[in-house]
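Ligand-bound model needed. fe (ii) ion.
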Amino acid sequence: MPLGVDGLARTIDRRAFIDESILDIEWDRVFQPSWQLLGFSGEVREPGDYVVRMLGRDEVVVIRGEDGDVHALHNSCTHRGTRLCRASLGNTAHLRCSYHGWTFANDGRLIGVPARRSGYPPAFDRARYGLPRARVVCRRGFLFATWDPQAPDLEEYLGDIAWYLDALLDCGAGTWEVCGPPQRVRTRGNWKIPTDNFAGDGYHMRTTHHIALDQGIYGDTLADGTRGRAGTDLIAVNIATPHGHAVRAAYALPRGSRLDDRDLTAPRFPGYPPRRWTDLARAQSPEQVRFTSHCEVAHGVIFPNTAFLSVAHDRAIGHDDDPLTRYLVIRAHLPLSARETECLYWTLVPTAMDPAWQRRSYRFQARTQSAGGILFEMDDFENFARIDAALARSTPGRSSPVDLSLGAGLGTPVPGFPGPGHAETATLSEHNQRAFYHRWSTLMGELP
Ligand code: FES
Ligand SMILES: [Fe+2]
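Prediction:
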């Protein structure tokens, strides 16, 4: 069965979410040629600092070498294959294997072999036994990596989505700092389920997250069930790129107005303190301001499995006195199997903001959209687990494809939208998910 109908990926075969044989193909065809997020340079600040992460199906030690560069080294000894590094993070002068003691430098070179002179033939060449290294690029503190020597450069790979990421980061007026190691949580369900959710699923808000909306976490619930403040409309713009990356940005505007009606001589950055708005506007280009001004929430996906969310909150449950705040969370959705995913969450805070604001931003993120948060993750994970259970157990259900037609053909192009890519307004649409699955199905080919 073809994965996409009419080449538009309006349906997906249900086996794509449950079959291990399909994950096996995904490792080679989707993950291998892609750039994936390993973490942030702030996690490995000093020479010898390391974290252990997944790159595709392989574990890598992400380590800052003595040369100051960050390396991603296959976490497997080149002698018999022993897992080298067993801690999830730390600082080390070298990596020494626990089996026979081969020792590797922080850039992956084999530098120590017990009994090398007495036990190995003279032709034994240590240089041939270095740890395999992935390509790593640090972009604005984000550490992306790929195993594929043929993969395009990261900038080419990111394409249009880089413009949107930069706009969100520049809106913080400078550099960003990662708040400690990521939170990690396992969820039932295939890795594509949370990923397509982040690509552009505004549709589930009114049902899945109605409690959060009722609590006023985003201000009032609007007449159409979406979020916002009384007297406003939520206008969402969906932007998809041919690479499968996507972003959805939602703007709360006075009822009946259009995106063009915003007064950009007085830009607004919800969640940031109004006294900082002039500074924040100055840190961006006029085109970036046209994207970020009045934006309540922007979320999206960097294909295949990196997601981001920048959102303003009126209130954090349990901290009712806190003023409006914004947070930025970056996520990786890592397959543990076809039916289980590990989610990593990093909160980033702009260094230009004062420490109290940074703490509040981190707290809002931790209390809502995180593994231990109230409402959002619990609500979403419950649905992801239910999808998994139903798809895996129901034989009749396997025969009907998963539908992705919401809003198809109904979006309105946004002429003059400041960013690149195909932008269209449709508050409820699966435009971005179609782009994500179209890219996925192009790489996968037909299912066996
Ligand atoms: S397996 Fe690592 S030194 Fe033998
Ligand atoms: Fe959700």
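The first strand starts at residue 11 and ends at 12.
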